[in-house]
């Protein structure tokens, strides 16, 4: 088979000069060939792309699964509602529920998204709970008066405001009562000062469906890493049993410097911010380690209110406000 001279095909009627007659022959011919080949390749590629695009556009748009959101037609601008969060989705990137012994903890009905009514009281004198992991020995919040320079009434008002932060965005309803023994959450000062602030959480251990027994106690603290032994739900999906919280205690270190409001001095902690963080533990939220969150274990004065991660967490546990 004779291979045609591609130079004649590229330049009809042209008679190439011999290499001896034209020393620039190879340079000119190669340059001309590359240019024309590139043009030909571009033309072919454009045609192939056009055919492929036409074929794709001619394909029918499949109907969406009846169980899921409708897929918009090609070119449609109508936005579809986002799917609702299901309990089995891995929510650790949004927030971190408090999870102990394989169960997620919350007040009220042991089912996520359900509201709850929770009472709280302020310790008036010594309180001893030897079985608690944190806040074993507590005293009245008036011990914080000297450390903060604020009145006992002002300190209690900051705690009440912190409770409202959580109730205003969720199905939680908090009520202050005087009976410290009957209160679901007890607030006070540490009798044996350590750290900054801590929370102890008691919950009902569910050993079998429908069977509950008292037991289980865990503590969390501000400005300290996770204290549970690998029980946190930071990386695990949240499909788990729900165990009811039976009682919580919040205790602040009276030897630490406290204040009301932000002033840039991170050596003294804002009382409302601290109470809000510890209340988060008391209602079933664990430390959040990434992004802005009042449940982050490090104190900061970047923001004063709940962040989207905090709101997502409390609403996942207790639903939307009922009021």
Automatic annotation (TrEMBL):
Q: What is this protein called?
A: Matrixin
Carries keyword Lipid metabolism? Answer: no
Q: Which UniProt keywords apply?
A: Hydrolase, Membrane, Metal-binding, Metalloprotease, Protease, Transmembrane, Transmembrane helix, Zinc
Any one GO MF term held by the record is:
zinc ion binding
Q: Which GO terms describe its biological process?
A: collagen catabolic process; extracellular matrix organization; proteolysis
| Disordered: region residues | 1-24
GO cellular component annotations of the record:
extracellular matrix
Does the record carry Ion transport as a key word? no
Domain Peptidase metallopeptidase: residue ranges: 103-320
Organism listed in the record: Stappia indica
Q: Which domain of life is it from?
A: Bacteria
Which InterPro entries would you find in this protein's record? MetalloPept_cat_dom_sf (IPR024079), Pept_M10_metallopeptidase (IPR001818), Pept_M10A (IPR021190), Peptidase_Metallo (IPR006026)
The record lists the membrane-crossing segments as 38-59
